[in-house]
Amino acid sequence: MPQTVYVVDDDASFRTAIERRLKKAGYEVATYPSAQDLLDRLPDDHEPGCILLDVQMPGLSGPELQNSLSKLNSTLPIVFLTGHADTRTTVRTIKAGADDFLTKPVSSEDLLKAIERALRCHEAARSRRLKLDVTRARIAAFTPRERQVFELIVRGKINKQIAHELGTTERTIKAHRQQVMEKAEVQSLAELVSIAEHLGVLASTAKAGDSG
Amino acid sequence: MKLVRVAGPAVLLLMTLMPFWVSAQEMRPRSILVLDQSELVGPFYYGIFSGLRAVVAANAGAHTTLYSENLDLSRFKGPAYEQSLRRHLLEKYRDRQIGVIVAVGVATLDLVLRWREELWPGIPVVFAMVDEIDYARLKLPPDVTGGIVRVGLAESIAAARAVVPNLKTIALVGDPWDRQVIFRNWKDEVATAAAGLDVVEIIGLRMVEIRSKVAELPDDSAIIYSAVYSNGEGAFYPPATALSFIAEKANRPIVVGAETFLAPGGVGGSVLVPAVIGADAARTALRILDGVSPSSIPPVAGGVRPIFNWEQMQRWKVGAASLPTGSEIRFREPGLWEKYRWQSITAVAILLLQAALITILLHERNRRRDAEIESRQRMSELAHVNRQTTAGELSSSIAHELNQPMGSILTNAETAELILCSNTPDLDELREILAEIRRDDLRANEIIRRMRSFVKQSPFEAREIDLNATIREVFEFLSGQASARNVTLELQTSAEPLRVKADPVQLQQVILNLIINGMDALADVPDGRSVIGRTEANGGTSALISISDSGPGIPAEKLNRIFDPFFTTKEQGMGIGLCIARTIVAAHHGRIWAENQTAGGAVFRLTLPLSAH
User: B16-149 with B153-273+303-336: one CATH topology?
Assistant: First the structure.
């Protein structure tokens, strides 16, 4: 599977040099002279890849692009590359999730290592998201009643309490519970709670519970 | 002791007689009869009478009637003439009350003394201008007193010696001695007074002869003029007039014995002063009229003074120092200094003041020039510090800018190594890489060169430059900084070049300070961050440069303080950037000021004079 490095730098000479080098290392390379260009031609983050981003550029700066991408839920890892690294910018970008922060001039070895790391990161993130997508699809198969039961189960309610809360019999709840476990393809309550947590169900229901 | 014993009773006697004097005074008529021996045509006797009359007229006490008779004794002589005079006076003054008789000249005095018993019995006589030799000879009665003059030949010879230092010869010029009125005693004096000198007698000759003789006198000689009354051929004139004829021809200085002989050509001498003689006589006469006994008034000597003629002194090269002490100099043409003393003093004072002022101003100008050089030197140094500080602030952007080509070079070099390691190196690609490396190297070099030229210290050196090109360099220099700060930096230059005489390094610093200020002002502006530069010709005589930003502008109360030293609105600022900018602009005879734009943001404008073509 081809891995793409998206190079964002206002310096044409540097773009050419880095593109040539990365291609030699076997990557696909896409270059953008400005951050806005990348936003206009947004890369598909389902494909493996990473962004090599200059910090100081006319118009939108590197950290600003990082921010925009984060809002777009992009999973593409970002390796920053700057002519001059000041501590404040470095800390800010790392906190905001940057994978690495390199300073020009950078040796190919360091650069390739950083890109390799970023790509591995992206791979992991992609697989995590894949798994999450599967789970989300399973939960999506719940009936509204099963969804209600699921949300109450993961909050630790016992059948009797659930039956009382939903105004039905304990036996009916037991049947719904069976369905929920089957559709979610889990064997234990612990697994079910784990799914709920990953999907963020706990947080939202807790809120709902407090208000109700 | 004996004298005192005699004086005591005498005073007592005088005191007992006092009441009679007072009554006598009351009875004495206030009138004076002046008899003089001249015909009043000559200036000398006129002078005596004028002096006399002036004193009488000035006597405020009481009016005194003045009668005068000119006996003309120098031209008319003999018993018959005297008799006719006597009869004339007798008839004329028969009914007139005369208080005092004033007799001018020894000849008049002779006649008066002879006629007094008959004509004016008991009337006191005041004489004037009687030579002391005549006075000694005359044996005067006690109620006759007056003024004695000493007009000795010795005095005239002494004056001649003062005028001619090596005097060897004197030429005596005059009428025969016995016909002379005033100077006739000189006849007896010649032998003693002129001892050791050659004496040329030009006495009793006709005027033509006199004139020819005085023209041929030897060196080291002087003429001593007594008086000539006629030309010897029937014409009579006052001796002053005669002297003027003689002086026309004389080849030597003429020493004279009367003040009135100075103007016609006499060099001077111990001279009779007629006004003084007349005045002295008048004063004595008035005292007698006022009741003072004539016998108590002793005769006084006076009326003779050493007076010299400046014009003649110049002609005969006589210095004032060689004259007898106390000499008066007449007819001195006052020099410019004497004539215009105050004007001269004022003019000289003004000149001196002016000179002093000029000196002071020149000195001040030198000091100011030195101070200007000094201040320019300081400004250069301070500007250098400012540049270095700015360079420090700019270091991050410069590092960034420099690291761009460096990064490209490193990457390209490593790529090239990689290519060389392959079995079939792509030479075209290698060539391409090397070209890029070279280009990036040159780019890095250019950045360093700009930085160095900016930071290096250079003395103030104005030369003709194109403002547009100079300013463009600054904008290019700061483009990296601008992009790092996410600021749009733009320069709009005038179509035609703007030639100014300036120090490009310092001018660039001004522009740089303004741009950095502009960018600093944009720190908290979220978007639309721009610094725009503009250059334009301002009416053909000056160039106008403006640097505007899209920041918040300058608070109105700070607008006129921002150019002050150490005034800053920035946390990190030193407050010298704008101060230096203003100093530099002023050194270029330009002006810099700040405004707020109506659309927002501040604008700094500066004008520089365009250099004439």
Answer: yes
- Is some CB atom of chain B closer than 8 A to the CB atom of A72? no
Q: Which among A14, A106, A108 is the nearest to B404, CB-wise?
A: A14
SS3 B545: strand
Encoded amino acid at B159, one letter: A
Burial class (CB in 10 A: 0-12, 13-18, 19+), B376: middle
What integer pLDDT is reported at residue B40 of this predicted model?
Answer: 62
Read off the pLDDT of residues B177-200 as tens digits, 9 standing for 90 and up. Answer: 888 878 888 888 888 888 889 999
Asked if the Cβ–Cβ distance from B407 to A17 is below 8 Å, we say yes
pLDDT tens column, A43-96: 988 889 999 998 888 778 888 899 999 998 888 999 998 877 778 888 888 888
The model's pLDDT over B250-300, given as tens digits with 9 standing for 90+, comes to 999 999 999 999 989 999 999 999 999 999 999 999 989 888 888 889 888
Q: From the DSSP assignment, how many helices (H) and strands (E) are in chain A?
A: 10, 5
Q: Are B204 and B229 in contact (CB under 8 A)?
A: no
Pairing of strands B221-225, B65-70: unpaired
Three-state secondary structure call for residue B319? coil
Nearest Cβ partner for B415 among A10, A24, A61: A24
Tokens of B525: 């502006």
CB contact under 8 A, B402 and A58: no
Check: pTM over 0.90? Answer yes or no. Answer: no
Contacts of B84 (CB under 8 A, 6+ apart): none
Q: Which residues of B touch A82 (CB under 8 A)?
A: 400
| B366, two tokens | 């030198």
Angle at B35 between CA B31 and CA B39, to 5 degrees: 135
Q: How far apart (Å, rounded) are the C-alpha atoms in residues B219 and B160? A: 13
**In chain A, whose CA is at the least distance from the CA of B434?**
A17
User: What residue in A sits closest to B485 (Cα-Cα)?
Assistant: A56
Among residues 426-455 of chain B, which lie with CB inside 8 Å of chain A? Answer: 429, 433, 436, 439-440, 443
Q: Do A83 and B401 touch (CB under 8 A)?
A: yes
Q: How many CB pairs under 8 A join A and B?
A: 85
Angstroms from A76 CA to nearest CA on chain B: 24
**Judged by CB atoms within 8 Å, which residues 381-410 of B form the interface with A?**
396-397, 399-410
pLDDT of residue B170: 93
- The pLDDT of residue B574 is 63
Candidates B436, B484, B488; nearest CB to A17: B436
Specify the CATH architecture of the domain A4-131. 3-Layer(aba) Sandwich (3.40)
The pairing of beta strand B31-36 with beta strand B65-70: parallel
Domain A141-211, CATH among 1.10.10.10, 3.90.950.20, 3.30.1780.10, 2.130.10.10: 1.10.10.10
Helix (H) or strand (E) holding B111: helix B106-119
Compute CA B232 distance to the chain's CA centroid, rounded to the nearest angstrom: 56
Q: Taking residues B13-24, what's their average pLDDT?
A: 48
Mutation for testing the A interface, residue in B404, B428, B429, B442 having most A CBs under 10 Å: B404
Picking from B407, B415, B482, the nearest residue to A14 by CB comes out as B407
From the list A13, A56, A103, the residue facing B484 with the nearest CB is: A56
Measured between beta carbons, which residues in chain B are less than 8 angstroms from residue A105? 403, 406-411
A45: left (phi over 0), alpha (psi -120 to 50) or beta: alpha
Q: Structure tokens of A79?
A: 């390796």
Q: Are B98 and B33 in contact (CB under 8 A)?
A: yes
DSSP calls for A99-157: SEEEESS--HHHHHHHHHHHHHHHHHHHHHHHHHHHHHHHHHTS-HHHHHHHHHHTTT-
Superfamily of domain B461-613: Histidine kinase-like ATPase, C-terminal domain (3.30.565.10)
**A106 with B439: Cβ contact below 8 A:** no
Separation of alpha carbons B486 and B403, rounded Å: 18
